[in-house]
């Protein structure tokens, strides 16, 4: 296991997260694809099942080097926009030529688009241990319009932290969102790490 991957699920603040992923950007894809990174394709298939249409814009939140964007395109989505903290990761994503737009975002700042601009969102391997905080789920859900859908994941490390499970429950338990899909399965099978994929719809 690389030194980056061994530290990937360690808690850090947003500035440290940006630096970590900037430093990892050049080798990130080779490392995780060698471990059988299964989550992007799982998420894209799940969102496609419930999206209804494939020409509506999809926000790829925390798009990284673009693996989720590529999976969304492969699943049939035609308009994909990505946002990420890391400029180095975004540069890698740009080279894939699957995004309509790519935007660097600042931690703790408002997302650079209007409420309701995206009825479809993906947060693939993003909200969890060592990455975006649990509160990022609330940020995305508030931006979704009624009937909007978000696909997200929680890997084994994240599922051990009640804050992340609790953030999801805050929306589904009170009826503010409906759980359309939940599936446990492989995340990085090369290190026996699994993840749960969810699709939730804003009520």
Strand order of the largest sheet: 3-2-1-4-5-7-6
| Structural domains: how many | 1
First and last CA, distance: 42 Å
Estimate the helix proportion, in percent: 25-40%
Question: How are helices and strands ordered from N to C?
Answer: HHHEHEHEEHEHHEE
**Category by helix and strand content:** alpha/beta
User: CATH first level: which class?
Assistant: Alpha Beta
Mean pLDDT: 93
Low-confidence stretches: none
**Helical segment count:** 8
Estimated radius of gyration? 15 Å
**Beta-strand level of the residues, as a percent range?**
15-25%
GO molecular function: methyltransferase activity
Protein name: Methyltransferase type 11
Transmembrane segments: 117-140
Organism: Pseudosulfitobacter pseudonitzschiae
Could you explain the architecture of this structure?
- It contains eight helices and seven strands.
- The protein is of the alpha/beta class.
- The protein has one domain: Vaccinia Virus protein VP39 (Rossmann fold).
- Strands 3-2-1-4-5-7-6 form a seven-stranded mixed sheet, with helices on both faces.
Keywords:
single chain, Rossmann fold, globular
Topology:
Blueprint: H1 3-7, H2 14-34, H3 39-51, E1 58-61, H4 67-74, E2 80-84, H5 87-94, E3 101-104, E4 120-123, H6 135-143, E5 149-155, H7 156-159, H8 162-172, E6 177-188, E7 193-202
Parallel strand pairs: 1-2, 1-4, 2-3, 4-5
Antiparallel strand pairs: 5-7, 6-7
């Amino acid at each position: 296991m690389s030194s980056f991957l061994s530290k990937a699920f360690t808690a850090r603040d947003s500035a440290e997260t940006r630096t970590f992923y900037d430093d990892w950007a050049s080798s990130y894809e080779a490392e995780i694809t060698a471990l059988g990174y299964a989550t992007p394709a799982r998420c894209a298939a799940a969102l496609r099942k419930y999206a209804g249409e494939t020409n509506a814009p999809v926000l790829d939140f925390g798009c990284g080097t673009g693996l989720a964007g590529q999976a969304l395109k492969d699943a049939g989505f035609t308009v994909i926009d990505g946002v990420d903290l890391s400029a180095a990761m975004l540069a890698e994503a740009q080279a894939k030529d699957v995004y309509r737009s790519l935007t660097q975002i600042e931690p703790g700042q408002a997302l650079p688009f209007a409420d309701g601009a995206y009825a479809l969102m993906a947060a693939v391997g993003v909200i969890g241990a060592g990455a975006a905080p649990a509160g990022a789920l609330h940020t995305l859900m508030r931006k979704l319009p009624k009937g909007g859908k978000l696909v997200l994941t929680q890997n084994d490390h994240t599922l051990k932290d009640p804050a992340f499970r609790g953030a999801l429950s805050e929306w589904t338990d009170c009826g503010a969102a409906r759980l359309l899909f939940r599936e446990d399965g492989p995340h990085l099978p090369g290190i026996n790490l699994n993840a749960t994929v969810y699709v939730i719809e804003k009520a």
